[in-house]
Amino acid sequence: MLVSSIARFDAINTMNNAAFASMQTTNSMMNLIGNAHTFGGEHDLGMLHELDKKLSLDLATNGLLYKIAYLQEKMLAKMGKNELKQQKVDYLA
Q1: Nearest to 52 by CA among 36, 64, 66, 38
Q2: Using CA atoms, how far apart are residues 55 and 26, in angstroms rounded to an integer?
Q3: Contact between residue 1 and residue 83 where contact means Cβ atoms under 8 Å apart
Q4: Which end of the chain is more exposed for a tag (fewer CB within 10 A), N or C?
Q5: Do 22 and 67 form a contact (C-beta atoms < 8 A)?
Q6: Sign for the pseudo-dihedral over CA of 65, 67, 71, 74
Q7: Rounded distance, CA 34 to CA 60, Å?
Q8: What's the angle, vertex CA 49, arms to CA 63 and CA 17, rounded to 5?
Q9: How many beta carbons lie within 10 A of that of residue 62, not counting itself?
Q10: What is the predicted pLDDT for the residue at 86?
Q11: Residue 21's pLDDT is what?
């Protein structure tokens, strides 16, 4: 029971961290767009493109990590309920 609770808290923590990282990445992308007028020339556009690719990949990675942690937390919650049911049956027997 304690192990599944710790694992659930870890999954929730991972979800929160992934959501925060996604927010930070989105803010970075918005700042990049807002400051696009400061870049000039073909070389800087290449750099801007590379930053956009990196931030888009970070955003997708954080979204996937969030979904995995959400499903992990959901699975562990179900396992915790099953453990409680099993303990109740053991006490009754």
Answers
A1: 36
A2: 8
A3: yes
A4: C
A5: no
A6: positive
A7: 21
A8: 25
A9: 20
A10: 77
A11: 92
